[in-house]
Write a structure and sequence with these properties.
This protein has 11 helices and no strands. It is globular. It has a single domain, classed as Orthogonal Bundle (Hypothetical protein af1432), CATH 1.10.3210. Helix content is 63%, strand content 0%. It is mostly helical. The structure holds fe (ii) ion (2 copies).
């Protein structure tokens, strides 16, 4: 695999590199805890935000070039595209062909309908490895959720975001994932 660190640092993305390193570490820990493949989960963590090397203003153009079908939320908030673009970069530039990894990267912000355990693991690791000041406000709920299952942890995070008006424009995948999780917990 090509060097994630080198690519991010060469593009002035030190903060992203620190974040993905932390996410990769959490992914490994959660993989051991929940019986998933630690190596694959760690790779997903390292590459999940690799599209940070593409300027936000260029994301829409890149998505159109790739022939992505875009939903209303993605048109309104092109930042949401970074998950799908990261999956493309992981596959095409880093040669990742493991579908479980590409899927998890591609839905790490919104999750999706019927998520796999690897999808949920990266999704929640990204939220636990908080990239802002202090402790995440949903930390207690999510940690309690993790004592039960990945489903419960993802549900608690999504419920917190929904109940606190933090979801600017729900992506259809977010809505479907939450509906799925409501039926699981
Ligand atoms: Fe991300
Ligand atoms: Fe992230």
């Amino acid at each position: 695999m090509r060097d994630v660190r080198e690519l991010l640092l060469r593009n002035g993305k030190e903060k992203t590199f620190r974040h993905v390193s932390q996410v990769a570490e959490v992914c490994r820990e959660l993989a051991v805890r929940f019986g998933l493949d630690p190596e694959l989960c760690e790779i997903g963590g390292l590459l999940h935000d690799i599209s940070a090397v593409i300027a936000p203003a260029d994301m829409m153009g890149y998505a159109v070039e790739q022939g992505f079908e875009l939903c209303v939320a993605e048109r309104k908030y092109p930042f949401l595209l970074h998950q799908r673009i990261s999956a493309v970069v992981a596959e095409e530039f880093f040669g990742i062909d493991e579908q479980t990894v590409l899927s998890a990267i591609g839905c790490h912000t919104t999750l999706k309908a019927n998520p796999t355990r690897a999808d949920m693991l990266l999704f929640i690791a990204d939220k636990i490895a908080w990239d802002q000041e202090g402790v995440p406000p949903f930390s207690d709920e999510v940690n309690r959720g993790l004592e039960v299952s990945l489903e419960r942890a993802c549900y608690e995070y999504m419920r917190y975001m929904n109940d606190n008006g933090k979801v600017l424009c729900p992506h259809p995948n977010w809505t479907m994932a939450f509906g799925y999780l409501c039926g699981q917990v």
